[in-house]
Design brief:
- By secondary structure, the protein is mainly alpha-helical.
- The protein has one domain.
- It has four helices and no strands.
- The radius of gyration is 15 Å and the shape is elongated.
- The protein starts with a helix and ends with a helix.
């Protein structure tokens, strides 16, 4: 049950840190690179959490698990958003 909150939290933290890092970069302020690196590490963590949740779900079959895993790897943010909004309810129940 804790994994449910971890994915959502990491997704939102990652999105906000990347957004702050982008703003800092546009404004040419300091601490841009560390902020973006932290945001990318948070992005990597929610991608790993998402793949872990999908692979451990007994509700979906193998081809769909492969589809989600490939989508998380190549389209991280978009897949994370789709998974959070619609796919997670079906997979985690």
């Amino acid at each position: 049950m804790k994994s449910i909150y971890n994915f959502k939290t990491m997704f939102l933290v990652s999105f906000s840190i990347i957004l702050i890092g982008t703003f800092l970069k546009i404004m040419n302020w300091g601490f841009t690179e560390p902020t973006i690196i932290i945001g990318l590490l948070c992005t990597l963590s929610y991608i790993i959490l998402g793949i872990f949740e999908v692979n451990n779900s007994p509700k979906i079959d193998k081809p769909e698990k492969y589809m989600w895993a490939i989508a998380f790897i190549f389209f991280g943010f978009i897949t994370g958003l789709v998974y959070l909004i619609s796919g997670r309810k079906r997979i985690m129940q």
